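Record type: ASSEMBLY
Status: queued
Input:
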Amino acid sequence: MQLTDKHQEYWRKNLRLTSVLLGIWFVATFVVIWFARALNEITFFGFPFAFYMGAQGALIIYVLVIWYYARRMNQMDVDYGVHEGDD
Amino acid sequence: MATASSNLAFFNQLKKYYTVYTGGFITFVIILAILEQMGLPPTIIGYIFLAATILLYAGIGVMSKTADVSEYYVAGRRVPALFNGMATGADWMSAASFIGMAGTLYAAGYDGLAFVMGWTGGYVLVALFLAPYLRKFGQFTIPDFLGSRYGGHLPRTIGVLAAIICSFTYVVAQIYGVGLITSRFTGLEFEIGVYVGLAGILVCSFLGGMRAVTWTQVAQYIILIIAYMIPVVWLSMNVTGNPVPQIAYGSALQEVTKIEKELNDPTSVKGAAEASVRSLHKEKAAEWGEKIKALDEAVKAGNGETFYAEQKAKSVQKLADLKANPSPDAKAIAAAEKDVKDFPANIDKLKAKWVGAEKGAKGKSGPVAAHATPFSGKGAEKKLMKEAEAKGETPTPEAVAKAKAEDEKASNDKRNNFIALVLCLMVGTASLPHILMRYYTTPSVREARTSVFWSLFFIFLLYFTAPALAVLAKYTIYHDLVGSSFASLPSWVQNWQSVDATLMKIVDMNKDGLIQLAEITIGTDLIVLATPEIAGLPYVISGLVAAGGLAAALSTADGLLLTIANALSHDVYYKMVDPNASTMRRLSVSKALLLVVAILAAYVTSLKPGDILFLVGAAFSLAASAFFPALVLGVFWKRANYLGAVIGMLAGLAVCMYYMFMTYEFFGGVDANQWFAIKPIAAGVFGLPAGFLGVIIGSLLTKEPSKEIQDLVDHVRYPNLENDINTNAA
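Status: finished
Output:
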């Protein structure tokens, strides 16, 4: 199997997208937890911020991250001609 | 593989079936509600719900029976993304999520959110690192991937072993949940409840394997989400006037915080009453402490057996005294009878019981923990100030600094444990074979990616409701129950108190006729189970909640049993023992194994081993340590090879298990062995790096994998390549 430059670029782009999304996941989860005591001083929608993130905010971000990844990758498959056919 | 148009037709057909099904189920509930108004007794409603839902799952199982290998192992790889999402949701959400989570959040406040974040955030890892690649690989089990990617029988064998260890631990916790629900709502014995539930699980997976399990899980998801939402929406309406609990509970949380402050302020009326109850708890804790000390001394002196016999005789004597009383107190006699009947079997268990009682009393002797506050310290500084004030002195700056440092250390330890637990749960999610297996069943890589989105979306619906339920329940109890009179206890309190004292118990300790928060004992399972009654809904909704809990436990147990049986029949029998076995033989071996594993799991469950939450946590830590590094590096690092995988998986498992043995009491471990004060439930936080290091070092020590294997890696990385190899198993 010979991979073309285009194939390599597809994979590099995939890696870049994966790391950016992983970064968002990391911040929404671990950075917020680490600073939870301080962040709770901020009020958000009537909730203390860190509590809100743990109970809803982070969850919404996870759903969006996965939605965006699926959409972007499915589009990229087509752009780079590696999408599955109809068979 | 099916064509796009036939896929679409299939999707539309499914949509029609499940819409009709949902409508039918709602009609069924409405009819029962009408019958209840006409006088149908609650026990009958409980039985009808149990029988109807188990028959329904069995019916779907019979309709989906199959003799085709691909249908049996991966549902023919034609499950559309949306429906695979629902099936994964049901597969994922266990009895612990459905019944236990809101209660854990009620008790632990912010610190309980580790489970909410951990059990959802893991899907980000599934989506980014595993699902699409496993789907492209397209075989039947997770050990299949390890076997092909790393070559040789050893990586596959370790994979099978790890899959069995973590799935079996997890399935025991599920069957336990099944037994608990059936026994509570029908009055059957726990052990019988276990086997009744098991029959429901088996009919389904036995006949149709993954195919039957998939379509049953979709049906179960629909029931469990309806059952979870109805009472919470109603409660939210009652408490806040807003039917969307997830938005409404912000105001309830502010109220709860206000009441917490009042209860902790000894100058307020309510606060003073709480303080008087707390001092009673403190005395009780001291009494237990004395008793434990006496026990320890007796054991040290070698008189453990005599001490135990004395205590047992005392409990029998107490019962006799009560019975001899001229005006016998029926309640006290019943309690004493229970004490005698459930008297601990040996001195170790007696000590454990006393230590538990001491801990309970100590917990209630302190101030109320604030719900939204993360990682509260142990209150050393406050205690110091209070003591000094009582003596009329000011504490030295050194003493204050020391107390402050103690508080900060306690708080930081809690934070570190929270982070470790979240990490273990997330990575464990992305490593549990019964979840990963579900992404083999979609028609394409594209659908696999979309399917992870739907999975998390359907899980999210329940998980972001649970914290709302916890706060709304807390508001009701703090606002309505605390401060009310013992003469007018709400009926739900009376009901649950008589059903099970471990779930709900209120005793007027300071004899003021009013209820104080420190006088209420609530079991974590109560919150979800009692919500329909707290919200003033008819019994039929309680039956619905039980059916939802049962659906959650059954669907997870189904997926897990199938994973274990498939690992044994496909990976061990077909791939290693007899690769020439006929299709018929493969399926009959698989079914026979399913039966054996199920009975074994039910047997282990009926022994009631250990703490459920720990069992579940342990399964996640083990899965994370064993699978994640080898699976992810297998896709993202071409250089990873045979030796790396073997060392990585073994090192991960070994470190994780070693840590649990050294620190978890059940295995004789002690806290002093902890590293960085991390609790044994998060042992994976050490197993995971060990696993990664193992894969990397092992791979670099030996030569890079062959051209064929590197081609395989390229193959899974691209959804479609020209002159691609085909690894789909049929």
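Annotation: Chain A touches chain B through 45 residues (CB under 8 Å).
Annotation: The CA atoms of residues 13 and 28 of chain A lie 23 Å apart.
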